[in-house]
C-alpha cells in the first residue's frame, strides 16, 4: 500500500529514487537502473542540471537539431531547435531552403517594453487616491533605485508607473501598472523584485498618510507580479516575392492557384477558432523549439502568444498573407519576451552552445530569429496542407519512430523506407510489412 512520502524534498537524490521506486514500481531494480542510466558522467555538470529544478531524479532527453540556411535580413544562420517531432525541423528547414533563393526572411523588432502590476484593494474615493499617488509617485520610484541602477546603466529600468482604476470590474480593485525595459534579460526576477518594493512602500505610505482617515489607511496588497502578456514587446517577420516566383515543381499546381489557395487557408484561421488553434500550434512548434534550445521560457511565450491571438475578443491565426500587385507576402507579428543573459541561457551548457551557434545575438536579435522560425514552420505546414496534405510528409518522418517501436533491424529499416516511399504509412501497415518479411525469411 502506498504511503505519503513525507519530507521528500529534504532527501538526497539516491534516497528520493529509492523511495519512489519502492512505492510506485513493481520492478524496483529495473526502474532504479533506468533513472540512473541518464545521469551525466560529469558529476559537476549533473549537479548543475539537478539544481535547475526540484525533486530531480534524472535527466529527460530531447533531440537537438538545426535548421541550416535560414537567410535572415541578409545573414545566413544555422538555428538550433529542441523538439521531439522531426517533421517540425524538416518543415522549417525546407521553408528556409525554399526562401533562400527568394530573398530570405526579414524581421524587425517593433518594441521591447514589458510590464507588471501591483494589484491592490482600497476602499475610498478614487480621486483622493489618485491625488495621493501623484504626490508619492516619485518616492515610490526612488525606493526602487537600488534594484534598478544596474539595469539603468545598461539602458533599461523602470520606464513608467501609473495608477489604474479597475473598480468597475471588482469592488475596490486598483493596480499600480509599471512598464520596464530589461535589455538582454527576459527580466522576470528583476521586474518582480521592483514591483514588490513598490507594493511594500505604497502600503507603508498609505497606512501612515494624513491624507486619509483611519478607514482609508487600510490597503490590501493582493499581489505584485510581472505580466507574461507583453503586447508592447513585439516582433514582425515576413517573406515576400513575386507570385510568379512561387513556381515549384513540388507544388503540383501553378503559382497563382497555389498562392490563392494558400491565402485562403490563412484567412480561414482568422475566422474559425477550430482552425486557428491548430494553425497557431504549428507556429509555436517552431517558436518553442528555438525558445527551449536557447534556455528561454516557452510557457511564458506560448501564454502571451495565445492571449495576443485573442486580443480583439476572438481567437485568430497569428500570421497573415496578402496578394497585391503581383506580390506574395506572408507576415507573422507577435509578442516575444526572451533573453540572452541570465537564467538557463547562462547556466545550461547547450543553451550557451545554441547562442554561440547564433553568434551571441542580443535579445532583440533573438526575437527576430525566433519569429522567423515560427514563420518558416507556418509556411511549411500550410504549404503541405494545401498541396500534398500534412500526413504524407508527417508520417514519413514518423516512420522511424514506428520502426524503433517494432525494434526493426537495420536491414528491415532500409527495406521499410524503400517500400513506404509510395505507400500510405500507418502503424498497422508498417507492423504488417515487418511481420510479413520476418515470417517470409
Characterise the protein shown here.
This protein is of the alpha+beta class. It has 4 domains: 8-50, no CATH class; 73-108 and 234-388, 3-hydroxy-3-methylglutaryl-coenzyme A Reductase, Chain A, domain 2 (Alpha-Beta Complex); 114-226, 2-Layer Sandwich (Alpha-Beta Plaits); 394-440. Helix content is 50%, strand content 18%. A 4-stranded antiparallel β-sheet has the order 3-8-10-9. A 4-stranded antiparallel β-sheet has the order 5-6-4-7. Helix 8 (255-271) crosses helix 9 (273-293), helix 9 runs antiparallel to helix 10 and helix 9 (273-293) packs across helix 13 (363-386). The chain starts with 12 loop residues before the first helix and ends with a helix. The mean pLDDT is 92.
Task: Name some characteristics of this structure.
441 residues; alpha+beta; 3-hydroxy-3-methylglutaryl-coenzyme A Reductase, Chain A, domain 2; Alpha-Beta Plaits; 4 domains; 4-stranded antiparallel beta sheet; 16 helices; 10 strands
**What is the count of DSSP helices, taking H or I runs of 4+ residues?**
16
- Given helix and strand content, the structural type is alpha+beta
Question: Going by CATH, what is the homologous superfamily of the largest domain?
Answer: 3-hydroxy-3-methylglutaryl-coenzyme A Reductase, Chain A, domain 2
Strand order of the largest sheet: 3-8-10-9
Computed over alpha carbons, the radius of gyration is 27 Å
Looking at the structure, what is the overall shape?
globular
Residue share in β-strands: 15-25%
- Biggest beta-sheet profile: 4 strands, antiparallel
Q: Calculate the terminal CA-CA distance, rounded to whole Å.
A: 48 Å
The topology string of helices and strands comes to HHHEEHEEHHEEHEEHHHEEHHHHHH
CATH topology label of the largest domain: 3-hydroxy-3-methylglutaryl-coenzyme A Reductase, Chain A, domain 2
